[in-house]
Design goal:
heterodimer, A: 803 residues, alpha+beta, B: 57 residues
Chain lengths: 803, 57
């Protein structure tokens, strides 16, 4: 293969990648691999060539097609779990296609019917990267459909978690019930204001008393469904909170709404006045709007990903010399399974046959390949590199080491955020509500001598005006704005509660590989005699043959070289590569093996030698993220820092220099010990934020008070966490933490503002002078002040990269 | 005065009609995906139709 290499780099007509290793030509088009060419041909055959006109080089690089990848779709139970709807003839399914990235994707995928007439309709949701398909299941099986998509470069991503709760928990872009509630409240609010207009202008009804009564009754008719339907969540939450003997902010709100309704009904039925129905509807309208604003959902992201998103759905089981695709959760202890090159080992197992070389970067963060001997125990989570291996299952899926660990923390974390208001708001309510009740009782005593109706009127006025509308809006709007603002710099929060949590941290724990350093793109330096073209060609060919991560990193250095045909090649475990060309020995490997001299101690070294004479040494240093030192310097002022790395201690001295003196740096940490470290800090009363990236940090991210996952590609790869931060925005971290603290201060300031309004309102109410007009003015004005203040305050503070 | 009441009732009926139109639009999922339709409408229909008729003929 390497002999075919060409020097002039052209880009592939289908995917736009550089055609480096080999080029395939078809007419005047150039392709980087057979896969891309195949897709091009399929598109041409179906007259869908316009795909490339909409977006040049719109395709995805085709990885080698794995035969039988979707065999499990023939299983009826799996089919049933994936199908959204099914009748005699038609089925409807929804596939997640992470490859969707441009308008040409939409164009092509919505013309699936051209490939196969059994497809009735296909519709793309671009933001969710989903394709919903209605097809005739008698003519086309689900498996064929998946393979059709695979053949045009959009292999559906079907993960285990979709099967278990895919149908029940269909992700919605927003909460529909909340929208209905807001719609109803807004509708009633507008119309009641219109009907109350004569009241606002103080127009005398004496001539038209009849008309006034009609208006009042209409108001009541409009407001009743609002109080019942739009207000139901507040009543429920208040009731729930009272049963738990707590006073959350919903208690005074529910009380306010109830009193508003009763008082207004009393006035209208008894013909004493026109009621406060406008205030009632306005109050609920604003409160619900605040809740909607607070829900900023990134529907293209998932914060719930656990191991099930990474594991395959089905695995090849060996029985009687045949392989059969079996759903992963049906695998039992003692069964034999086959794991092919590039596949994940999903359960704890013992190696029976084959050469196991495992890439454990998923679970340990370590980049080296680990070899296993026959009979060795292999933990779930490793990825096999090389030939297919046979394994005996030791533990089923849910009892395997990592899955068990993850499950434990996933359960613990559930129900972390129940209340739809912030913790700060609920804390205030704990003493706000009793004070309001005391004032109401005091008012009742003062007005007792004036009779029952006076008591009712003043007490209800107190409760109405004390209704903490502005107070309840402060946190949702502040955090709603804050979430949007941090979202713009590539920091995505699961919900607004995370922002509040973020402001309370005092200890930050970092993972190393992929978090503090880049996942790829190591810094490579060469020291030694310069290499001629012949030597370069030989080394390039050798590195080409090796799957070792260091070889792959080094190969980039030999990009522009024509590889030379090797006469003999072998890879010596733990030492390096050896090749013979025309009787001459070439070696690449550890400096000790080749007796090369090494100066610096940190990072990895790879030596080159020709005929047992060392030529030079490559120094490979895992490169730390840009601005890391500056970021850490800023964070060190406010937080205690630690590093937990799954990698070996080779880079300790390098990181020692970057971190402040008192930071703890721990290497060779297992997923369990990471969790133990965090729990130990929590026991000391610390609030711990874990910053990690891989699945090996998954349990630690869950057990920490705040889990931050760093992702190079936020759509593809992020373990379950509270916050997802784009990798190249790492140096925004100090500023983000500072912003969270700032947001909390803003909330407290707006609490004070809303109290002032409550005081003004109360001064009217206790004296029995609260007219509907004053209530109708005071309530919106206080809300607008608070919302305006927090909007301004959150937008003026910038979020910057550390300098 | 009777006219006024009729007017008010008519205006309320219109407002109610809009409320139900709104509820229907939410229910039918029109706000679920606010991006794809904006791209979809830009695709050339003609080109598509010509290939379509070719297939049928």
């Amino acid at each position: 293969m390497s002999q075919k290499a060409t020097k002039n780099i052209t880009s592939c007509h289908h995917c736009g990648d550089d055609c480096r290793d080999e080029t395939i030509k078809l007419a005047d088009k150039v392709f980087c691999c057979l896969g891309c060419k195949t897709v091009y041909e399929i598109l041409q055959a179906n007259e869908l060539g316009a795909y490339y006109e909409i977006q040049a080089q719109a395709g995805q690089k085709q990885s080698t097609k794995k035969e039988g990848k979707y065999d499990f779709l023939d299983d009826e139970k799996i089919q049933e779990q994936l199908t959204l709807f099914k009748d005699e003839e038609r089925s409807s399914v929804s596939f997640s296609l992470p490859q969707i990235h441009c308008s040409a994707c939409i164009w092509l995928l919505e013309r699936l019917y051209k490939f196969n007439s059994a497809v009735v309709e296909s519709k793309v949701n671009f933001l969710k990267k989903e394709l919903s398909i209605v097809f005739n299941h008698q003519e086309l099986s689900l498996k064929d459909l998946a393979e059709l998509l695979q053949s045009i470069g959009y292999a559906p991503d079907i993960a285990l978690d979709q099967l278990n709760d895919g149908k029940k928990k269909k992700r919605r872009a927003y909460d529909r019930k909340l929208i209905y509630q807001i719609g109803l409240a807004g509708f009633a609010f507008g119309n009641i204001m219109l009907l109350s207009l004569p009241d606002y202008f103080g127009i005398d009804y004496e001539i038209d008393a009849e008309l006034s009564r009609v208006f009042n009754w209409l108001n009541m008719l409009l407001a009743t469904p609002v109080a019942i339907y739009s207000g139901q969540d507040y009543f429920k939450s208040a009731w729930y909170s009272l049963r738990q003997k707590r006073l959350n902010i919903d208690v005074p709100i529910a009380l306010g709404v109830a009193v508003l309704f009763l008082r207004s009904t009393y006035e209208i039925v008894g013909q004493y006045g026109s009621g406060y129905f406008d205030s009632l509807c306005g109050l609920l309208f604003f409160l619900l709007l605040g809740r909607l604003f607070q829900q900023k959902i990134y529907h293209q992201l998932s914060f719930e990903r656990d191991y099930r998103s990474y594991f395959p759905i089905a695995i090849s089981r060996l029985a009687n010399g045949k392989t059969k695709s079996v759903p992963l959760d049906k695998i039992e202890k003692g069964q034999k399974i086959l794991v092919r090159n590039g596949e994940l080992i999903p359960v704890d197992a013992r190696l029976l046959k084959g050469k196991a070389r495992l890439d454990n970067s998923f679970i340990s963060g370590e980049s080296r390949l680990i070899e296993k001997a026959i009979g060795d125990k292999i933990f779930a989570g490793g990825r096999q590199v090389g030939e297919a291996i046979e394994l005996e299952v030791l533990k089923p899926l849910d009892q395997s080491r990592l899955t068990a660990l993850w499950n434990r923390y996933a359960k613990m974390n559930k129900g972390k955020m129940e209340s739809h208001f912030s913790q700060g708001t609920d804390k205030i309510s704990e003493w706000f509500t009793p004070i309001i009740l005391l004032i109401a009782i005091a008012t009742a005593i003062i007005h007792f001598s004036e009779g029952w109706s006076a008591v009712f009127e003043t007490v209800s006025a107190v409760l109405i005006v004390a209704c903490p509308c502005a107070l309840a809006l402060a946190a949702p709007f502040t955090f709603g704005h804050a979430i949007r603002k941090v979202g713009r710099v590539g920091c995505y929060l699961r919900d607004s509660g995370v922002m509040e949590e973020m402001s309370k941290m005092d200890h930050l724990v970092f993972d190393k590989t992929g978090t503090l350093t880049y996942k790829s793109g190591a810094k490579i330096q060469y020291k030694g005699s310069s290499l001629n073209e012949y030597e370069k060609g030989a080394f390039s060919a050798m590195l080409n043959q090796s799957t070792h991560p260091l070889s792959k990193a080094l190969l980039a250095e030999f990009r522009d070289v024509d590889p030379i045909l090797l006469d003999h090649f072998e890879e010596i475990e733990g030492k390096g590569l050896l090749a013979v060309i025309e009787g001459k020995i070439f070696q690449i490997g550890s400096p000790e093996w080749l007796q090369a001299e090494v100066e610096e101690s940190n990072g990895s070294h790879v030596a080159l030698s020709f005929e047992k004479e060392p030529l030079g040494v490559f120094h490979i240093q895992t490169s730390v993220r840009e601005g890391l030192k500056e970021s850490l310097n800023q964070l060190a002022g406010d937080y205690q820092l630690s590093v937990l790395s799954g990698d070996h201690a080779g880079t300790r001295s390098q990181f020692k220099k970057l971190f402040p003196q008192n930071s703890e740096l721990l290497f060779e940490q297992s997923p369990e010990s990471k969790v133990a470290y965090i729990e130990q800090l929590q026991e000391q009363g610390k609030k711990v934020a874990m910053i990690g990236d891989g699945l090996n940090d998954s349990a630690a991210l869950q057990s920490a008070d705040l889990g931050i996952s760093i992702a190079e590609d936020v759509h593809a790869f992020a373990p379950a966490s509270d916050l997802i931060l784009e990798g190249d925005r790492f140096n925004f971290l100090p500023s983000l933490f500072a912003y969270a603290k700032y947001a909390r201060t803003i909330v407290w300031i707006s609490f004070v503002i809303s109290f002032l309004y409550n005081l003004i309102g109360l001064s009217f109410a206790v004296r029995g002078e609260l007219s509907p007009v004053i209530a109708a003015i005071l309530m919106p004005i206080s809300s607008i002040t608070v919302v305006g203040f927090v909007s301004l305050a959150t937008w003026v503070k910038p979020i910057k990269a550390a300098e | 005065m009777g006219v006024l009441i009729i007017l008010i009732l008519v205006s309320l009926a219109v407002a109610l009609a809009f409320l139900f139109a709104f509820i229907w639009s939410v229910k039918s999922g029109q706000y679920e995906d606010d991006y794809t339709p904006s791209v979809r409408m830009l695709f050339d229909d003609e080109q598509d139709k010509s290939t379509n008729t070719d297939n049928q003929s």
